[in-house]
Amino acid sequence: MTSFENRPITKVIVIGAGFSGLATACQLQRQLDCDDFVIYDRASAPGGAWWANKYPGCAVDIPAVFYSLSFAPNPNFSKVFPPRAEILEYFNGVAKKFDVNRHIVTNTEWEGAYWQESTSTWLVKLKDISTGNSYYKECKILVSAVGGLVDPNPFNVPGVDGFEGDILHTARWNPDITLNQKDVIVVGNGCSAAQVIPAIADEAKSISQFMRTPQHYLQNDNLQVTERWQFVFRHVPGLLLFFRLLVFLFLESTAVRFGITGNGQKARNQSAQGSKTYIQENAPEKYWPLLMPKYEIGCRRRIFDNSKYVGCLQRSNVHLTDDPIASLRPRSILTKSGKEYPADTIVLATGFSLTQYDVELVGRNGCTRTKHWNDFGYKEAYKSIAMSEFPNFFFVLGLNSGKGHTSTIYSIENYVDLITRVIAPVIRDQSLSVEVKTDKENEYNEALHKAISGTIFNNSCFSCFIDQKTQKNWFIYPWSSFDMWYDTHMGLSNDWIYDVSCEIQYLLIPSGHCLF
């Protein structure tokens, strides 16, 4: 059932209540003094990926002093790489401080959005998950702050329906299911697997891990932040900001290894050697071939081993294999080679189905998002946030916004700053709409993919960064963080078309935040 009741026009609708949605909400209030917005999320509580991923051992792999919003520093993290609970506590604290929760509507699915030329608004289709009823809301500005680390990849293996034990995905963890003295199968060897296995190894009777492609593992010591240091951070002005700057600069210094240059190759060789040494000093020799990839380091996502997964492989109850799973039996797994492994519980650390771009989006003249990308020849957006033919619509952490070496929160803040500056005239009723110029969209994406071709983030190894249909990298931002800041703060006024509805001498676009 779909409701078409009278709809008041909301200034801004944000889809997604993770860090992207939170940052958008805070900056709408801080930078634009805009309180007329609503955030919709299908989950039962805000937090995005940090709410969804409840598996044991879940933690951040970027120093938390930099995995936090610049306008809401936190001196209270207990470790350099704190666990999920502390990140979620920080998230909820920021939401409370900026009074964001009253704007959030949970248990609500985004089903589509349709541009209304006559009113210069978006008609947004939503579904109340608890009732199954669909309805529409109307807004001036629509922001997709939908992330990709929520929907599990499907597990399509013969016999899965006949398996009598429990099957859990790391993003759908059930804390009521005990693993005590259970034979546990872990499928996958990415970041989630590297965190969950050490966390459950003491409890499980046995853990058999099934992997496909080897990963690069890097040593990452997770230092404690003592109460004394927390006290100092709280009471010495500027000290936490100084540490944030140091982390920013250190992480930025590692970006050289991604370039196809002499210095880049040298840095990759050093990093690869460090990974190899770490494996040889900590993992059983029988597993070395499974832990040392032949492709260049950085081509796929590296794993920072905060949880000491590599050392965990020394345990007698942990077993690693690349023998492919052939089928499931009621209480076991059968491999391609014919081996059978006992299984009470299967833990899927198999990554995510990237569905954030699947929702129907219809812009000017009936142009769909799919048609727009087909016309371009690949998935793209101007500076990751906007597409021509889709006025007043914006992505946070959209296409080619990802960085391989630094904080996602840094990227979020920069793109949110750009969005708030661009939409300011619409929010202030100085313009009906804003749309990126087609030629600027073209120019940007040509430059972007040319830059990607000069990095290791191309199609030289099978990576989820690569669209297998077009062989284009849809994920990586190929330039430095300094470039990202400049890209999102300087020289952009000629890239946009404003539908001005009243006489104004200029369009006021406020300045953004500091570099780091």
Short descriptors:
516 residues; alpha/beta; FAD/NAD(P)-binding domain; 2 domains; nine-stranded mixed beta sheet; five-stranded parallel beta sheet; 21 strands; globular; FAD/NAD-bd_sf
Instruction: From the 3D structure, determine the CATH topology of the largest domain.
Output: FAD/NAD(P)-binding domain
- Classified by CATH, the class of the largest domain is Alpha Beta
Q: What coarse outline follows from CA principal-axis ratios?
A: globular
Number of helices: 13
Instruction: Estimate what percentage of residues fall within beta strands.
Output: 15-25%
What percentage of residues falls in helices of 4 or more residues?
25-40%
Number of strands: 21
Task: Summarize the helices and strands and which ones pair or pack.
Elements: E1 2-3, E2 9-15, H1 19-32, E3 37-40, H2 49-52, H3 84-97, E4 104-105, E5 108-116, E6 121-128, E7 134-144, E8 166-169, E9 183-187, H4 191-200, E10 206-210, E11 217-219, H5 227-235, H6 239-253, H7 262-282, H8 288-291, E12 303-305, H9 309-312, E13 318-321, E14 325-329, E15 332-335, E16 340-342, E17 345-348, E18 360-362, H10 369-376, E19 393-395, H11 408-427, E20 431-436, H12 438-452, H13 481-489, E21 496-500
Parallel strand pairs: 1-7, 2-3, 2-7, 3-4, 5-18, 7-19, 8-17, 9-10, 9-17, 10-13, 11-12
Antiparallel strand pairs: 5-6, 6-7, 14-15, 15-16, 20-21
Helix pairs in contact: 1-11, 11-13
